[in-house]
Amino acid sequence: MFVTRLKLPLALFALPVLGLVVWSLAAAGPGQAKQTAGDQTKQEAAPQPAPPAEYVGSETCSGCHADFAPDKLAYHKEIDVVKRLSEWKGRACESCHGPGKAHAESADPKLIFSFKGAPAAKASQTCLKCHAQGLRSSGRAFDAHARNSVACGSCHTVHAPKAKPLLAGVPNGLCVTCHTNVKAEFFRPYRHRLAEGAISCIDCHNPHGSPIGGRTTAQFRASHGNEQPCLKCHSDKRGPFTFEHVPVRTEGCSACHEPHGSVNPRMLVRHQVRFLCLECHTTPGLGLPAGARPSGTAPMGQTPPAFHDLRSPRYRNCTTCHIKIHGSYMSGIFER
Amino acid sequence: MKTASSNNRVALVVLVSALWAAAGSAQQQPAPAAAPEPQQPAQTAAAPPSDRPVTGSIDFGYRWTVKEYGNNNMYRSIVNLGDGPKLFDAALSFRSLRPSYTDRVDVQLNSWGGEPYSTARVSARKEGIYELGFVYRNISYYNNIPSFANPLLESGLPSFDSQNGYDIHRRLFDVTLDIFPNRRFSPYFVYSRSAGTGPGLLTFVGPGNEYLSNRRIDDAVNIFRAGSHLNFSKANFTLEFGGSRFRDDLRVFYGPGGANPGNRRTPLLGETLRLDSADQQYGGGSTTFFTRHSATLRPFRWMDLSGEFLFNQPSLNATLRELAAGNLVSSPDLRRNTGQTVTGTAQALRPHPSGTASLVLRPLDRLRIVQSYYTDRFHLSSFSALNQNLTGVAGLLGFVLPPAVSEANTNLVYFSSNYNRYQAEAMFDLHPRVTVRGGYRKIWSEVLHGDPSDPEAADRGRQRQQVALAGVDVRLPANLTLFGAAEVSSGDSALVRTSLLDYQRVKVRGRWKPLKWATVNGTLALLRNFNGRPDINLAYRSHESSLSLVLSPRGGRRLNLMLDYMHSALASDMFIILVPFFNRDISRYDQNGHQVGAYVNLGLTKNARFDFGGSMVVVDGSRPTRFYQPQADLVLPFRSKVSWIAGWRFYDFNETQFRSEAFRSHLFLTGLRITM
């Protein structure tokens, strides 16, 4: 079964990938490949500690790269003035690009580490030499950006930032340049007010990776230590409740809601509430011992009692009676 | 329900302040206006290339709405922009030209003056010393969308009342302070508050009937956290501690105002039910202690180790006081009564630890192996006790009962969830321009929910899933980049019927920058999920393909063009059981949508701009919907620092199945932009 199901996506995926690989290798050509490999060797060497004599200092760099002089940088000019970075004083450029003596003497661009064109992992490792502190680093193993070779420089720029912190564009605009489908979801009528500036992508998501969305693969920004980000604003849904609605905790808010935008009221994933509820609440066996159910691995969510006559509109919107559907202090069936 | 207008006063104060600031800088040299990015909130640049003390711009003016037709409740539920004087946008940077406590202060204000989402952001920093950030948001949540359960639908008459509506304001406040005393130690402090208040509609639910009533939402949470980053040459640690206090004082009330017949219009066992008055007052309060600690170690050049431990333990103390009068029934034996008094208390404790551990190995220059383990566990132990006193008690169908009855009901609940995920992935650089990856993910979790005194009747869930992972990143010449990722899962069991089980997910993303001023992005996302259990038979298929084009010749000074298009299709069907006859049916949901956004920014003269465009949503399927939002904006300078701004917005919303919910509205605005 597993192999059978593997065939279609593998075929969809592998053929174009194989074609692209062959094309890219052919397009690069042996000469270019050799040259790039040479760059690679230099690039790998660059961030490593080097004898002081290998450095030339930022003043020398500014001689040719006046626009990128450290004193014109937004944050990284601190490398020259801040005491805690004193070991790099006067060598701000080389703190990222590596020792520049060979490059300065020959003006050969291949003899210095350049972020442009460098493999994403190498470029990011250079940034992480200083910026590994904090939670952005510990979540990196869960970071879809890192896994997909999206380097720090894809979003950040040291030399010409357009927004804080050193972003190459405004935060939401930057995210949707790649996540074009998400941008389109925000055009829908029931949505979070992202385009209007009320919230930002990074209010909910952590672009540097986070384990909090481990159940959903989304990179959530945590609230209250390790809760879903939705609960920071929708704090009345957090609890703890005496009676918790199980999927709120196990599946997350996106089990019932489309957080970016929906054509269904309340950003629900179904057009009518009864279908949303019944798709889970269809396992027979309300109140029966576990052994009396269809099988020991039956999913959770039991069929409602018979008086819920779904032919009547009164019963079609389940939350008219089950008003505390996210969790209740007093009622096990969420009625108060 | 009414629109809050208190923000008008704030807007006025901000306007006066902004004008004063503008006057103060009137002698400065004119600065070229930056090209605005439509549909994005204005952001302050990281470093103003200027030595002037104040830079930025302020947009303010007046907006009025012209409603062509439609349902005002729906307009407010979806758009909610109103008339009046507004501060549309202000972004100011104050820069200290001599040594001071701050190098720079940035102020950014959006949408003030009775707007549904007003924001203020202030940040101050002194290089190498501190960074202080302040964010305030006042977000209006208005929802008065007709409910399907409205009893008038039975009679065939349309009704525009919601049975779960609200008109609340949620005020969010965040203050963040980062201090940099030295390179080893950098503490930070964060205070956040979220408070929601406002009226609404909700049902007072009793046995046999539910009665549309008023509600008053009043909740607030205060969160404080503090921590520090500890940085060493081969290790970094972050230690964070925090706590929060939450209160929830919801009130649901009805009357006096006549008998409320509720949603049931037919007698129940010979009794016509009604509610004369009700007052339900909740007093929920919870306190939480949480910690978050992380560590990153680089013992060798080829190895990274990191881990994180997170823990939060909220505890609850809640009360309920309820008074109701009318012709009511009580459960479980359906006694009729004319009055009821309910008092309740509840307590809960929910420890929630989670942790991660990850290992990154780079045994070869071209090879990276990433292994990670994530676990998330929480255990809820809770207790509630309800005391109910009924007065005017009588048996249904003429049975005689004592006139007053008191009964108590106690519940103990236990709920535990243990979730685990292990993932191993290898990434290999086939070529400097090609990286491939492949790996494996295993998920296993257990859920137990029920009464601890009756473990046999507890609801149990189990999840077992194995996922194969693959991906490729190709960076081709001519600035063409392609990412591809695929996941194929084979699951043994899922927690709920709609969970991912046997699924295949493919994502392909591409970016092409053929010219310095032209970018094309495309995305394709496919997901197929199946659950072949005979009583579920879930088949879920979704597909999203999107394309965006951005053209900004000559830095966008004369022309910017942004075009976005997405086609989304979703089809899901699965077995459900319909009561009262427990017959099997199919729940089918279809959605086939086209979402288009197009914006053009034209630079007419040096500082004059004309922007136009909009978005369009055309969705067919289970809930056919059309939503059009065209817009146009004009900026015409008439003094060196003052421009006239004018704008038009149009909202056209309609749904084929719910014609009464349609609306069409024009919004016009005019005002001034002052540039400093």
In summary, what is this structure?
Chain A is mainly alpha-helical and 336 residues long.
Terminal Cα separation of chain B, in Å?
A: 40 Å
| Helical percentage of chain A | 25-40%
What is the makeup of the main sheet of chain A?
2 strands, antiparallel
Mean pLDDT of chain A: 77
Which ranges of chain B are low-confidence, i.e. pLDDT below 50, for 5 or more consecutive residues?
Answer: 1-8, 10-49
Question: Termini distance of chain A?
Answer: 46 Å
SSE map:
The complex is a heterodimer of chains A (336) and B (676).
Chain A: H1 2-45, H2 58-64, H3 78-81, H4 92-97, H5 101-106, H6 120-131, H7 135-138, H8 144-147, H9 171-178, H10 180-185, E1 190-191, H11 201-204, H12 230-233, E2 243-244, H13 246-250, E3 261-262, H14 273-278, E4 327-328
Antiparallel strand pairs in A: 1-3, 2-4
Chain B: H1 7-24, E1 54-70, H2 72-78, E2 84-95, E3 104-112, E4 117-126, E5 130-143, E6 165-179, E7 185-206, E8 209-231, E9 235-248, E10 251-254, E11 274-300, E12 303-330, E13 335-349, E14 352-364, E15 367-391, E16 404-431, E17 434-450, E18 459-476, E19 480-493, E20 502-515, E21 518-531, E22 538-551, E23 559-578, E24 583-603, E25 609-621, E26 625-637, E27 642-655, E28 663-675
Description:
The complex is a heterodimer of chains A (336) and B (676). Chain A has 14 helices and four strands. Chain A has 336 residues and is mainly α. Among the domains of chain A are: 65 residues, no CATH class; 79 residues, no CATH class; 85 residues, no CATH class. In chain A, the strands form two sheets. In chain A, strands 1-3 form a two-stranded antiparallel ribbon. A two-stranded antiparallel sheet of chain A has the order 2-4. The N terminus of chain B is likely disordered. With 676 residues, chain B is mainly β. Chain B has a 28-stranded antiparallel beta sheet that branches. Chains A and B meet through α1, α7, α9, α10 and β2 of A and β3, β4, β5, β7 and β8 of B.
